[in-house]
Amino acid sequence: MSKKQVKSFDVIVIGAGPAGYSSAIRCAQLGLKTACIDNWHDEEGQSSLGGTYLNAGCVASIALLESAKIYQSINHNLKEHGIQAEAVSVDIALMMQRKNNIIDALSRQIADSFAHYKIDCIQAEAKLLNERRVEITPTDHSAVSIIEAKHIVLATGSSPVDLSCAPIDNEFIIDTAMALNLDAVPKRLAIIGAGIIGLELAGIWNRLGAETILLEAQESFLGLADQQIAREAYRIYTEQGLELRLGARVISAKKGSKKVTVEYQDSEGTHALRVDKLIVASGRKPNTENLAAAEANLLLDENGYVHVDENCRTTLPGVYAIGDLTLLGPMIAHKGIEEGLFVAEQIAGLHNPVNYDLLPSVVFTDPEIAWVGQTEQALRAMGEPIKIGTFPLKATARAQAMGQTEGMVKIIAHAETDALLGIHIIGTQASEMIAEAVLAMEFSASSEDLARTIHAHPTLAKALHGAALTLKNKK
Questions:
Q1: Cα 70 from chain centroid?
Q2: Which of 61, 201, 346, 356 has the fewest CB atoms below 10 angstroms from its CB?
Q3: Phi, psi for residue 50 in degrees, rounded to 5
Q4: Which residues make beta-bridge pairs with 124?
Q5: Please, what is the average pLDDT of the chain?
Q6: Which CATH number applies to 3-159+285-356?
Q7: C-alpha neighbours within 13 Å on the C-beta side of residue 438
Q8: Spatial separation of the C-alpha atoms in residues 322 and 339, rounded to whole Å
Q9: Three-state DSSP class for 159?
Q10: Beta partners for residue 126, in sequence order
């Protein structure tokens, strides 16, 4: 192909998930001629921007959880409000349609932003040929072509890890995407993996009436979270009806007679479990297979992650990798978004790096879990002198009025300087409350600063204020 036939851009972004679309939009805002290539399509074969996060991940999960919470509330919580409801039923098809409508609306918003900023949106498979060129194979199987740019941003996201012991058939043994598109509530459901994704899925289907069992290979529950918060979560979720089996390593899963028989081992031996559906939620892997031609010499590690420096630069000049493709931070959408903005501004000559130490983490269960900074166990392992303040949500008037009193706020500060080192929340709207904690730590606040900050009353955020007050005069 001759030089004249190659379309040129300032920036090519491969992938239109949170990292990719954020980077593309910011590049265009900064005056860069930008193209974004994405291959996600819906059941009708139409482009659906937003990646796994929007189409088969967090947004879809949150939408279904909201529906499930309403259903559970009608069945179990209305009488105390003096409200009577009879003959309540679930229409899963309509519930899924509502979820899909939300996805469609958000995807259209991304497409509208692309159009507004004159971003070339190309529905195709993309392959990096070298540090300047990308081969595109349209999803409609029309002619393959090549485009080029001064800068290329890789943002192809991640996909579920396959387990050889539980091969996906998308009928009885399903992946996490299919788990958000079931057409009926399983009577009995098992989930391999009690991490963030497994817990979020469990919360949905348990509330809709499925007997839900989580099989977690690790002996500890939510190892990344602060262990005091994790213990509280274990208690709450167990009381809600989730069956959490820790130290349970699945060795086989076989379908037969419209059931799945799952065999697993724990400290007491080998066990068999028969369920209607088995969800495999055992982690995610970067989408780097076929991302680059061999001759491009893009450096990957043994697990398929793209090697980058602290500025998200790969070993190829002008090529960046962001989001789930790298090990710079956890696989969370807002990490990818911030990297997308950071790389776009870097290309434009600006430098506003991501503070990976203060990335908030959120588990969108009910109640939610959110945290920022260090855990108590990590700080004690480092030998840091710390002081801890906690405050139960049930002590706030707002939580009592809402009937959402489960949970607590935990603040960890340095025992000598009073600097905030970690803030951990379990409770309703923890994902919203954590924003204040992130801001406080970003501006190097002390626990006394939080205690002296006037919080509106009655609000859930008063629990943060209460936890900070318990730290005053603590040594």
A1: 23
A2: 356
A3: 120, -10
A4: 138
A5: 95
A6: 3.50.50.60
A7: 18
A8: 6
A9: strand
A10: 136
Among residues 76, 116, 271, 457, the one annotated as catalytic is: 457
Residues 6 or more apart from 203 whose CB is under 8 A from it?
65, 68, 237, 240, 242, 365, 366
* CA distances in angstroms from 302 to 130, 157, 313, listed in the order given: 21, 17, 18
Distance, CA of 21 to CA of 450 (rounded, Å): 35
Nearest to 369 by CA among 164, 231, 217, 162: 231
48 marked as binding residue: no
Coil vs helix vs strand at 424: strand
As a whole number of angstroms, the distance between CA 91 and CA 97 comes to 10
Distance separating alpha carbons of residues 277 and 406, to the nearest angstrom: 30
pLDDT band at 4 (very low <50, low <70, confident <90, very high): low
Q: Can you tell me the distance from the alpha carbon of 453 to that of 447, in angstroms, rounded to the nearest whole number?
A: 10
Fold classification of 367-471 (topology level): Enolase-like; domain 1 (3.30.390)
Rg for the chain (alpha carbons), in Å?
24
* Fold matches, 3-159+285-356 and 367-471: no
User: Is 216 known to sit in a ligand binding site?
Assistant: yes
Contact 11, 154 (CB under 8 A): no
Name which of 434, 473, 475, 428 is nearest 451 in CA terms: 473
What pLDDT does residue 272 have? 96
- Residue from 67, 60, 139, 68 nearest 106 by CA: 60
Q: How much of the chain, in percent, has pLDDT values that exceed 90? A: 91
284-324 pLDDT, tens per residue? 999 999 999 999 999 999 999 999 999 999 999 999 999 99
Q: Tell me: is residue 157 an annotated ligand-binding position.
A: yes
Q: What superfamily in CATH does domain 173-282 come from?
A: FAD/NAD(P)-binding domain (3.50.50.60)
Does 457 qualify as catalytic in the annotation? yes
283 is in an annotated binding site: yes
Q: How many CA atoms lie within 13 A of 322 on its CB side?
A: 33
199 is in an annotated binding site: yes
